[in-house]
Design brief:
Blueprint: E1 3-12, E2 15-24, E3 35-40, E4 52-54, H1 56-64, E5 68-69, H2 71-80, H3 98-115, H4 132-137
Parallel strand pairs: 1-5
Antiparallel strand pairs: 1-2, 2-3, 3-4
């Protein structure tokens, strides 16, 4: 059985409040849990002391038993000094996607075309005789 230390949502509609719980990873998010380890209120200011309350002794005991925290809980534990959260690096995240790159290329082409007028497309030369397909049709 793999155990997770994760958030279980409580509170009412548009008023979230989370319990930090230890649960089986297969259990539903707000469903069955083994033990409550703390709570988190995201509506309170970041500097308020009652925004996050963790029972660090219980958390350390569950970590020793092999429980793994979710990313959000790992952030809380990193702030508390219990675990170290590895730094993440995704250099491709900030790059524009394909459509945005096409739009940027079109805008750059229009900007460079606006600075130096592009030559007008050459008009087709007048045909002296019609192609064979058009002559047969008339």
């Amino acid at each position: 059985m793999s155990l997770k230390i994760r958030l279980a949502r409580a509170g009412t509609k548009k008023r979230p409040y989370y319990h930090v719980v230890i649960a089986d990873s297969r259990a539903p998010r707000d469903g069955r849990f083994i033990e409550r380890l703390g709570h988190f209120n995201p509506l309170v200011g970041k500097d308020a002391k009652d925004r996050l309350k963790l029972d660090l002794e219980k958390i350390k005991a569950w970590l020793a038993k092999g429980a793994t925290p979710t990313d959000r809980v790992l952030r809380f534990l990193d702030e508390a000094g219990v675990m170290k959260r590895p730094a993440r690096n995704n250099p491709n995240k900030a790059q524009p996607k394909k459509k945005a790159q096409e739009r940027a290329a079109a805008a750059a082409a229009a900007a460079s075309g606006g600075a130096a007028p592009a030559p007008a497309p050459a008009a087709p030369a007048p045909a002296t005789e019609a192609p064979a397909g058009e002559a047969a049709a008339s």
